[in-house]
Amino acid sequence: MFHRGELELSEADEMVIEIVGVVEEYQRKIHNLKIKRGMKRAVERGYQPELNLRQQDHAPGRERIEVPISEIVRLKKK
C-alpha cells in the first residue's frame, strides 16, 4: 500500500475517488442554482438586498490596528 511514504491506490480506489469528485461538483452546482433561484424569487416578491448596505457605517467590521509599515519594511530587509 505504501511506497516511499506515499499511499498507492488501486485502480478501483482511483475510480471511486474520481466519481465522488464528480458527484460533489454536481451537488455544488445544484446548490448554487437553488440559491440563485431563491434570490430571484425573493426579489420578484419585493425583497431589496440593497437595503442591507445602508447602515454599513454603523458596523464597519473589526477595528484596524495601526502598525508602523516603515518599521516592518526595515525589519524585513535585515
Automatic annotation (TrEMBL):
Residue ranges of every copy of the Resolvase/invertase-type recombinase catalytic domain listed in the record: 1-46
Domain of life, source organism: Bacteria
SUPFAM superfamilies: Resolvase-like (SSF53041)
Molecular function GO labels: DNA binding; DNA strand exchange activity
InterPro entries: Resolv_N, Resolvase-like_N_sf
Stated name of the protein: Resolvase/invertase-type recombinase catalytic domain-containing protein
The organism of origin for this protein: Bacillus safensis
